[in-house]
Design goal:
D-amino Acid Aminotransferase, Chain A, domain 2; D-amino Acid Aminotransferase, Chain A, domain 1; binds pyridoxal-5'-phosphate; alpha+beta; 2 domains; binds 2-OXO-4-methylpentanoic acid; 24% helix; 9-stranded mixed β-sheet; 30% strand; 354 residues; 18 strands
């Protein structure tokens, strides 16, 4: 692949790792590539990070033709940089693109672009404990035309951002509100695609929860509003009466790569694990009778986030005394250990860049 490079003439000073937070600081460059129907992808380029110029009729702005991904580059103690399961993100990105009738990118090309660009920005991968370089690939329809149709022009971009923890709580338990009015997605819709519209639809409930002191909402299914789906930016897992349970993938939940990895890890270690429907009534009962032993969310940005309190229909339930439980702790230690290269990766998940 030909990727042209225009260097940023004014590289920024790297930020103090203590001030990182999530997604507020960007690196010196970005990757861009254009698509034209009949011609395919062209003009792959690394350019200085900066504003994009878009036609005011751009499809993404009017009809939400946009999908994205999220993965991280981790700096090991020996200074080397590695990605975590990048092919999983590339495959999911192409599935999301296909769902929205956006053009896909051949997997090998996408991997070459990703590794070339992240290697180019490698000095931006921070090394302080718990920090990483968040990688945000996104792809959007870029037709200059208000007709509603699948796109003829598209843009693929990658921006990168040095990050610390997603939640201000860090590894401390977060409080989650179970949402019983709005729904995020329905079967047959776009719930399993990582498209911007899903997040726009989530904002109203998220805002309501935040006003009441909760970090995010836990969604119920969009048909009966009875079954647990996922949290705003992470999948969810529970330990109920000794068993780890998580909602099965029904088409309306994002198939998280952290979710998949946690399940593979727990199964390899012999934990009883099940992917099934979990009704909110079952969860409420388990909260009341104390069989809900642990709850946590998992995602690239969120890592493994213990849930210390759940609120449903105005009733508050504390999980594991508001403390991180042993399985949550074990998953956090093992997943972050593999991602940052502190412990050996028996699965072949890590992808070294150097
Ligand atoms: N669910 C939603 C809605 C998300 O935004 C994310 C984050 O990407 C996840 C789940 C977790 O997915 P992953 O583990 O692939 O980051
Ligand atoms: C991620 O974990 O990569 C996500 O995309 C979550 C995000 C919406 C912040």
């Amino acid at each position: 692949m030909q990727i042209s490079v225009t260097r940023n003439p004014n590289p920024a000073v790297k930020p103090d790792p203590a001030t990182l937070g999530f997604g507020r600081i960007f690196t010196d460059h970005m990757f861009l590539m254009d698509y034209t129907a009949g011609e395919g992808w062209h003009d792959a380029r690394i350019v200085p990070f900066g504003p994009l110029s878009l036609h005011p009729a751009c499809t993404a702005l009017h009809y939400g033709s946009e999908i994205f991904e999220g993965l991280k580059a981790y700096r090991r103690a020996d200074g080397r940089v590695q990605l975590f399961r990048p092919m999983e993100n590339i495959r999911r990105m192409n599935r999301s693109a296909a769902r929205l009738c956006l053009p896909t990118i051949p997997e090998e090309d996408a991997l070459e672009i990703l590794t070339t660009f992240v290697s180019f920005e490698k000095d931006w991968v921070p090394s302080a404990p718990g920090t990483s370089l968040y990688i945000r690939p996104f792809l959007f329809g870029n037709d200059e035309n208000l007709g509603v149709h699948s796109v003829h022009h598209a843009t693929f971009a990658i921006i990168t951002s040095p990050v610390g923890s997603y939640y201000k709580e860090g590894i401390n338990p977060v409080k989650i509100m179970i949402e019983s009015e709005d729904v995020r997605a329905v079967r047959g819709g776009t719930g399993e695609a990582k498209c911007g519209g899903n997040y726009a639809a989530s904002n109203r409930a998220g805002e309501k929860a935040e006003k009441q002191g909760y970090s995010q909402v836990l969604w119920l299914d969009g048909v009966e509003q009875k079954y647990i789906e996922e949290v705003g930016a992470m999948n969810v897992m529970f330990k109920i009466a000794g068993e780890v349970v998580t909602p099965m993938l029904t088409g309306s939940i994002l198939p998280g790569i952290t979710r998949k990895s946690c399940l593979e890890l727990l199964r390899k270690e012999g934990y009883p694990v099940s992917e099934r429907r979990i009704s909110v009534d079952e969860l409420a009962q388990a909260m009341k009778d104390g069989t809900l032993e642990e709850a946590w969310g998992c995602g690239t940005a969120a890592v493994i986030s213990p849930i210390g309190e759940l609120c449903y229909q105005g009733k508050k339930y504390t999980v594991n005394g508001g403390e991180i439980g042993p399985v949550t702790h074990h998953l956090y230690d093992t997943m972050t250990g593999i991602q940052w290269g502190r412990i050996e990766d028996p699965f072949g998940w890590v992808y070294p860049l150097d």
